[in-house]
Amino acid sequence: MYWHPGHRDKRRFVIGRFIITFGLLALLFIAALVIIGSLAFGPLQVALPRTLALVLLLCGVPFGFLMLAGLGAGWAFRRYGAPMVEVMAAADAVAEGDLSVRVGEGATGELGRLARSFNRMTAELERAEQQRRNLTADVAHELRTPLHIIQGNLEGVLDGVYQATPEHIQATLEEARLLSRLVEDLQTLSLAEAGQLPLHRQRLSALDLLQDAATSFAGQAAEAGVALELQAGDPPDELEVEVDPDRMGQVLNNLVANALRYTPAGGVIELRAMRVADGVRLSVQDSGAGIPAEDLPYVFDRFWRGDRARGRSPGAGSGLGLAIARQLVQAHGGRISVESPAGAGTKFTIEFPILI
Question: What kind and span of H or E run contains 211?
Answer without folding.
Answer: helix 206-224
